[in-house]
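Shipment paperwork, digital attachment
Item: protein structure file
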Amino acid sequence: MNTSYDTAAAILPLVGGPANITSVAHCMTRLRLGLADRSTVDGEALRALPGVLGVVEDDTYQIVLGPGAVARVTADFEALLRKETQKARNATPVKLALRRVANVFVPLIPALIGCGVLAGLNGLLVNLDRLPSLTPALAAIATAFMALIAVFVGHNTAKEFGGTPVLGGAVAAVVVYPGVAKVTAFGVTLAPGQGGVLGALAAALLATYVEKWCRGRVPGALDVLVTPTVTVLVSGLATLYVLMYAAGAVSSAIGTAANWLLTTTGAFAGAILGGLFLPLVMLGLHQALIPVHTTLIEQQGHTVLLPLLAMAGAGQVGACLAVYVRLRHDAALRTTIRSALPAGLLGVGEPLIYGVSLPLGRPFLTACVGGAAGGAFVGLFAMLGDQVGSTAIGPSGWALFPLLAGDGGLGTAVAVYAGGLVTGYAVGFVTTYFFGLRPSPPTAPEPSP
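Attachment content:
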């Protein structure tokens, strides 16, 4: 069955897309569009659409839909147009670049989670001195992926940026190949894995550009032989003599900076990270942290930043619970909160952000306050020597408990993280309950008889 939304969605690209629409209106039977360039319209395809009765070209471009249907299609068309326009407005070069980098790492998250859980289980068995015959096997399964993660990053990078994925993986494999320990340049000997995922990302990106350069210049008869050879050779040498050194320096700086930040200014850093993460999520800028998390996991076995950032979700949950308690007569909003709360507790905050706190305004800000309080709590313990980290990225909220690791052992890590969540819930609730909602206007007294 063809719905009004289906019709609207089919019409939009055939009239030149959102950028070509200057005005939208309708009469009793026709959708009337102002168009910037009518030459981009596919009139024949429009006439062939189910639900379209005809097309009239006048001062506006008129699509005949019939009485009743035109109002429904116009409403859906305008909503779709707003959505596409907003999407185009948000597609800044920085956001597009971050999104492409995220597309490299996001497919790796399931393996990171699975291996992270197994690493945590193996660590628990080792500490308890249980199943000693099984723990070496678990260790091998849990660490094998991380030992070769550079290859997967290279494969995904080439795929995302338009190269041949296997060539990206081949060049990135140089980063983790044990034989690089025999390579010396500028008086320094390389170490296998030096540069980590950042080196693999840079190597595969370079390979993609070299491959595209070759494809445009090598005759077709020689392409299958010359292009892969030149791509691997040029990119491989650049990886060995330049990229691994540079990426290694950056990776080391990231690890040093993260440790210094938490041991020196833990409470303050936790408050900043926990308080600002919701706005970063809203703007899509949180994707820039994925390579940082992956680098820390590769270097240290866990990322100390994720538990701090997860406190933003705790503040959000607390804020929405306060909204639920305060707005007892708003049945629709309370239904939304009940539906989205389980996901929020498990670290999926978008339903609560876009369905509750952001539309209301103030609760979004008080949720940030709750996140800052939870982050400060976890950061304070990091200053005291009990850093909490996550062995994988992706989950947060309650879903992060199986992935926790820390300097003080699993029990301490769980206790500190749980304390941060409770702090975030409580502060988010209290600040929202008292300051996050506008007071209801006073009702006028009834006139005396």
